[in-house]
């Protein structure tokens, strides 16, 4: 081999060295507790490709690497709020993208839609992006040489008129105690009583009632790293018990240790939640969990003293909150609070898939009430409660299904009438309360497409394009397949449930909302004679409640068959009966191109092994539909919907004839009524909720509203040629 210097251009290539760097190492460069709320770092190449970004989604819902993940452009992720596709792709004339490709130092401002929960929710926010090239340093003789690399580093900060907004909280300059070293007894008093034992309880970290977000605050030894992997709080206790010299030798972040001790000291009153539960939580709320986070990622939670499912709820909460202040519920609550002039209670429902799973399992659906803890203008934490959906739904129904005596005058219209459907939507258009529990967690366009399209037309909601989307093309394989703070005080403010006052206002529907219909009772008298969606013979098969009925029908058939074959000792007779009662009508003899029957067959094939065991039904599964799924490049117009924060709500009805949308398909003969419908909206005071009432049933007469209105695939390949547009010859 040659010993000549590479810098002379005479060296010979003898190999390539590489090193895998875990993504969480990039996160350590800019932890949430240090950068502040919603701030983040990211990296890109001189081609504009993403190396690291918190909103980069290289893995699909099935946990598989997405196609094209390694050439995701910065313009696909950082999209301006008003950005629209050009030939199915984002605009590559993005100032931020150009600057990072050119490897220059500076900053740019941009308003984007900050997304949460895999783009199911979002809020507009201005960010300032600082960018600079990354250079490498290497020893060269007696000096150190700096060489350029093809990478650039970006820092995004939420920005206001006077700087970073909301601002980073100012912590004391000194730790709250004389030293960073604490006795085990003091650790137990400060963080968790279970820390009195030096051995970490690896089996049940939820029993500590206190958790810590993942941030490696020291260069851990292998022993401490293992303890950290089980429960970060245990590792923190071990470090704080060490002498100062050893903490220094491990390179611990004393700024982090100081802040987490301040947060722990400020939230010690959470110990009293269990003993004072009935005083803190009003009976009408029926909370099943109280919790709080702080900016350092310290979390505390408590369940009612009599809660039988305590360990299950605690474990779920502890596991879900490992992201600390990076958690979407934390960020969204803090962001909405920062954009509000007054205290705001944020209500959040789980995703539609999660609600459906709980609905099928006959378990309660949780609703989260959260509110931001502030010190001056800084958000220093989030406090919240988990309540049962049934409590909230019952209160909503009682408030909106009755009239307030002597108020408003005229005809009283309530949500109990058959031609009126009422909902509570959050700020992103997701259903929080509905007459049907199956609607909860879904975006309103899926639940009531024409009504949502009308609100989009009136600019109450907008959509956003997802340029990271990879769609699945389903192809049949064979012919068998068809087509710092006082948390207690803050919690009591939250528990007063300011939006109850809003619900009381909603009960007065006579004067402020539904009564504005022309001729009041006369027009409603006409509308009352209309058929509802259940009576209508023609209901769009794409509606989720239609699919839910299919699943219920299949489950009923499976349960009946299971009871029938249970006494049979002969396995072959069981198989024959399952084939005759289930496979034959639902799969083998189904009608081609019928969506409901296709759904029923696919759902049956999923449920058969669960109900009867794979050993018994393995031969029957040969008759199930088989598909090849291939990823294809696409752009999706997501049903991410947000309401403009200060957009005034209309005071009168929004009215629309279905033909104006081109969506109307009349019901079968015998169904009465016109295709006109009205939508009424009203803000629920003190919350992020909007009350929506729809008179007339657009899903009956206006079937066929395509979900493609808000979920459309836009053809167009990734424009690789444009990625070279701003590129200069590398200096190396």
From TrEMBL:
Pfam families, A to Z: VGCC_alpha2 (PF08473)
GO cellular component: voltage-gated calcium channel complex
Ranges of residues in domain Voltage-dependent calcium channel alpha-2/delta subunit conserved region: 252-512
GO molecular function, one term: voltage-gated calcium channel activity
PANTHER family from the UniProt entry: STOLID, ISOFORM H, VOLTAGE-DEPENDENT CALCIUM CHANNEL SUBUNIT ALPHA-2/DELTA-RELATED
Record's protein name: VGCC_alpha2 domain-containing protein
Organism: Macrostomum lignano
């Amino acid at each position: 081999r040659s010993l000549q210097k590479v810098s002379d251009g005479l060296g010979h290539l003898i190999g390539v060295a590489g090193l895998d760097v875990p993504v969480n190492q990039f996160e350590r460069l800019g932890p949430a507790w240090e950068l502040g709320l919603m701030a983040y770092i990211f990296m890109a190449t001189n081609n504009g490709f993403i190396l690291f970004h918190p909103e980069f989604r290289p893995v699909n819902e099935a946990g598989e690497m997405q196609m094209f993940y390694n050439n995701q452009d910065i313009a696909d992720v950082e999209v301006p709020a008003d950005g629209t596709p050009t030939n199915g792709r984002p605009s590559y004339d993005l100032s931020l993208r150009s600057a990072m490709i050119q490897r220059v130092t500076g900053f740019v401002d941009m308003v984007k839609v900050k997304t949460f929960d895999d783009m199911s929710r979002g809020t507009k926010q201005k960010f300032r992006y600082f960018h600079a090239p990354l250079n490498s340093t290497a020893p060269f003789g007696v000096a150190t040489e700096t060489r350029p690399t093809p990478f650039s580093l970006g820092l995004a900060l939420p920005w206001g008129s006077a700087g970073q907004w909301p601002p980073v909280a100012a912590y004391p300059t000194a730790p709250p105690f004389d030293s960073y070293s604490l006795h085990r007894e003091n650790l137990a008093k400060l963080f968790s009583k279970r820390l009195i034992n030096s051995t970490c309880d690896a089996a049940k970290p939820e029993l500590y009632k206190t958790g810590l977000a993942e941030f490696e605050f020291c260069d851990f030894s292998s022993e401490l790293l293992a303890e950290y992997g089980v429960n970060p709080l245990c590792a923190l206790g071990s470090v704080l018990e060490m002498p100062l010299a050893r903490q220094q030798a491990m390179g611990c972040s004393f700024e982090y240790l100081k802040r987490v001790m301040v947060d722990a000291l400020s939230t010690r009153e959470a110990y009293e939640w269990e003993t004072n539960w009935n005083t803190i939580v009003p009976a009408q709320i029926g909370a099943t969990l109280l919790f709080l986070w702080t900016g350092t990622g310290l979390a505390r939670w408590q369940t009612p003293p009599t809660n039988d499912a305590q360990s299950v709820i605690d474990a779920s909460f502890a596991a879900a909150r490992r992201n600390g202040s990076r958690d979407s519920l934390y960020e969204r609550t803090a962001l909405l609070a920062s954009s509000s002039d007054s205290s705001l209670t944020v209500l959040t429902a789980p995703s539609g898939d999660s609600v459906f799973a709980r609905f099928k399992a006959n378990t309660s659906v949780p609703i989260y009430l959260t509110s931001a803890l502030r010190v001056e203008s800084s958000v220093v934490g989030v406090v919240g409660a988990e309540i049962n959906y049934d409590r909230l739904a019952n209160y909503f129904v009682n408030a909106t299904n009755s009239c307030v005596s002597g108020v408003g005058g005229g005809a009283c219209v309530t949500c109990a009438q058959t031609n009126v459907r009422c909902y509570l939507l959050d700020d992103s258009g997701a259903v929080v309360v509905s007459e049907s529990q199956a609607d909860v967690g879904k975006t309103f366009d899926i639940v009531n497409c024409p009504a949502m399209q009308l609100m989009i037309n009136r600019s109450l909601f907008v959509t956003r394009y997802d340029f990271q989307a990879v769609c699945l093309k389903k192809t049949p394989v064979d012919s068998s397949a068809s087509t710092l703070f006082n948390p207690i005080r803050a919690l009591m403010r939250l528990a007063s449930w300011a939006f109850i006052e809003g619900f009381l206002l909603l009960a007065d529907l006579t004067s402020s909302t539904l009564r504005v219909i022309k001729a009041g009772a006369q027009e409603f008298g006409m509308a009352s004679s209309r058929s509802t969606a259940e009576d209508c013979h023609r209901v769009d098969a794409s509606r989720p409640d239609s699919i839910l009925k299919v699943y219920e029908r299949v489950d009923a058939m499976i349960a009946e068959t299971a009871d029938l074959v249970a006494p049979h000792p002969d396995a072959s007779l069981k198989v024959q009966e399952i084939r005759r009662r289930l496979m034959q009508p639902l799969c083998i003899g189904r009608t081609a191109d019928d969506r409901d029957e296709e759904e029923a067959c696919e759902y049956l094939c999923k449920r058969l092994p669960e109900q009867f065991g794979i050993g018994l039904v393995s031969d029957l599964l040969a008759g199930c539909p088989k598909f090849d799924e291939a990823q294809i490049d696409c752009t999706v117009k997501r049903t991410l919907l947000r309401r403009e924060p200060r957009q005034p709500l209309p005071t009168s009805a929004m009215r629309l004839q279905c033909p104006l949308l081109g969506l109307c398909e009349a019901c079968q003969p015998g169904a009465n009524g016109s295709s006109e419908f009205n939508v009424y909206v009203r803000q629920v005071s003190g919350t992020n909720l909007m009350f929506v009432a729809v008179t007339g049933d657009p899903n009956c007469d206006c079937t066929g509203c395509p979900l493609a209105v808000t979920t459309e695939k836009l053809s167009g390949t990734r424009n690789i040629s444009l990625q070279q547009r701003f590129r200069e010859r590398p200096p190396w």
